[in-house]
């Protein structure tokens, strides 16, 4: 589209003296050849980006059953409220007395999340689930150190989310993986073997990445507490338990939530998120600072947390996402939130039962908000789970999570969420059944999918390892040999 001399702006000629770049920027830092930028009109630019956005799949454009990610509808009332000037046009360094309304939102959200999780306090600072995990582990570490105990092992079942062992490492602790049993629960014998005086904590993803609720939760809590360890609850998928049960009641000491999943913050594409943590009394003095507190009718920041691990995020967390979560919680109320989970679980079980005749179901028991299928049967016919995921694109769906959790061969992890209608669920089920039939009758149609998308299969390894992050003119026009990347053709 580029035409030499064309521009998307029209500025008057500068009437102030221009700076001689060479006098202010060291020579080595000056660009040697002119930047290669596309030269296009404003309308070309607009159409280019609008067309790109149309190629993207989002929850507003179609069904998005990406397991563990809770891609549910993001209600537009959240967006309306987030755009109120009183929220959108304030600055985090404004004096407390000028932002009392914003502080009240944060304080009320803390209180709501305490009630939802059964915890004594909540910090809204962590910007994502993984950062919430890390924050909680830093508190656990500080707790043991404060008591003069040397505990550095964190037990992580093999059904945990992948971020769990990663957060353990980043927190300077050591992950000990334990297997699950044939029903998908934590193997209690294995757990008893590994707990001991070096156990800092157990991290449990519940429901697990198999979409299953841990059946022996009270016994697990007793075993870990009995050994002096703490219990961490990965509550990223609270979508399954809202108003039904609470980590605090199950004996857990600390929990993180993903407001961008369960509580409808728009997400995907890397953010923004919010991963608040909640903790019980014994961990209060280690919380990040500041906390938001209420004195009489006045809201303020409290920096006086004696053993605080410090600040974990600039300012006070992702305010916009916290605000949206508050709107969502208030729009639903306690009974509404309970219905959210009941319907999320109902939808997942409905879909699981409908698909069970066509795909292998490795754990045949009631699931929570999501379930896993195995493509073992189709693999024998020469069709991999990756191929089926690509084929789903032809039907206009975002594929489910695939090849995770690792303990299920040719895994597909499907999360329909409560916001989809029965018709949408049925249409997706039909597409999955058709794909299972094609695997038997015409495998090449799946192996060569997608057929109806703008581009066919991407070279995913090269895209990840050698990303092309800047515009480059087609090779014959550009200054050859100066660039790092070869131009790519879509
Ligand atoms: C999504 C998820 C996480 C990580 O959350 P991020 O916000 O992506 O960092 C952790 N645990 C579970 C179970 C999850 O589903």
Tell me about this structure.
This protein is of the alpha/beta class. The chain is 35% helix and 11% strand. The protein contains 15 helices and twelve strands. The chain has helices at 21-24, 42-55, 76-82, 85-88, 100-117, 129-146, 163-170, 188-194, 217-226, 319-355, 376-379, 385-394, 422-441, 443-447, 460-465; strands at residues 121-123, 153-157, 174-178, 199-205, 230-235, 254-257, 277-279, 291-295, 298-302, 371-374, 401-402, 411-414. The longest helix has 37 residues, at 319-355. It is globular and about 75 Å long. The site of pyridoxal-5'-phosphate (PLP) has 13 residues, from helix 6.
Short characterization:
The chain is of the alpha/beta class. It contains 15 helices and twelve strands.
Helical residues, percent? 25-40%
**What class do helices, strands and sheet pairing give?**
alpha/beta
Q: What does the main sheet amount to? A: 7 strands, mixed
Strand content: 5-15%
Shape: globular
The top level CATH class name of the largest domain: Alpha Beta
Compute the gyration radius: what is it?
26 Å
SSE topology string: HHHHHEHEHEHEHEEEEEHEHHEEHHH
Number of strands: 12
What's the helix count? Answer: 15
Oligomeric nature of the chains = single chain
Keywords: Oxidoreductase, Pyridoxal phosphate
GO molecular function, one term: glycine binding
GO biological process, one term: glycine decarboxylation via glycine cleavage system
GO cellular component, one term: glycine cleavage complex
């Amino acid at each position: 589209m580029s035409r030499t001399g064309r521009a998307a702006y029209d500025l008057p000629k500068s009437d102030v003296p221009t700076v001689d770049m060479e006098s202010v920027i060291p020579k080595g830092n000056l660009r040697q050849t002119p930047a290669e930028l596309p030269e296009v009109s404003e309308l070309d630019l607009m159409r280019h980006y609008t067309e790109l956005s149309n190629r993207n799949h989002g929850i507003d454009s179609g069904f998005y059953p990406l397991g563990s990610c809770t891609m549910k509808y993001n209600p537009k009332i959240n967006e309306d409220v987030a755009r109120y000037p009183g929220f959108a046009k304030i600055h985090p360094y404004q004096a407390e007395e000028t932002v009392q309304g914003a502080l009240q939102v944060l304080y009320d959200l803390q209180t709501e999340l305490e009630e939802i999780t059964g915890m004594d306090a909540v910090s809204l600072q962590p910007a994502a689930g993984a950062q919430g995990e890390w924050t909680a582990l830093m508190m656990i570490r500080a707790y043991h150190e404060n008591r003069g105990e040397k505990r550095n092992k964190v037990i992580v079942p093999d059904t945990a989310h992948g971020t769990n062992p990663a957060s353990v490492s980043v927190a300077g602790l050591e992950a000990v993986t334990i297997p699950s049993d044939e029903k998908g629960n934590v193997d209690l014998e294995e757990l008893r073997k590994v707990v001991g005086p070096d156990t800092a904590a157990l991290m449990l993803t519940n429901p697990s990445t198999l979409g299953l609720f841990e059946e022996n939760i009270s016994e697990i809590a007793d075993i870990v507490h009995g050994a002096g360890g703490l219990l961490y609850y990965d509550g990223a998928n609270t979508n399954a338990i809202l108003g039904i049960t609470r980590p605090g009641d199950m004996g857990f000491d600390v929990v993180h939530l993903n407001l961008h999943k369960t509580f409808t913050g728009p997400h995907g594409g890397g953010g923004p998120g919010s991963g608040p943590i909640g903790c019980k009394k014994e961990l209060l003095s280690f919380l990040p600072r500041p906390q938001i507190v209420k004195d009489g009718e006045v809201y303020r920041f409290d920096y006086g947390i004696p053993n605080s691990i410090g600040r974990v995020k600039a300012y006070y967390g992702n305010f916009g996402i916290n605000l949206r979560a508050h709107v969502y919680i208030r729009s639903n109320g306690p009974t509404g939130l309970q219905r959210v989970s009941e319907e999320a679980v109902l939808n997942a079980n409905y879909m699981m039962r409908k698909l069970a005749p066509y795909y292998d179901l490795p754990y045949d028991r009631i699931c929570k908000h999501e379930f896993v299928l195995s493509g073992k049967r189709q693999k024998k016919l020469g069709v991999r789970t990756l191929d089926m995921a690509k084929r789903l694109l032809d039907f206009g769906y975002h594929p489910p999570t695939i090849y995770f959790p690792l303990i299920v061969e040719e895994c597909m992890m499907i999360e329909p969420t409560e916001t989809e209608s029965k018709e949408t669920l049925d249409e997706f089920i039909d597409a999955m059944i058709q794909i299972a039939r094609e695997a038997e009758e015409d495998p090449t149609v799946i192996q060569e999918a997608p057929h109806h998308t703008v581009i066919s299969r991407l070279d995913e390894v090269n895209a990840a390892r050698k990303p092309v992050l800047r515009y480059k003119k087609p090779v014959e026009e550009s200054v050859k040999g100066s660039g790092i990347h070869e131009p790519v053709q879509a």
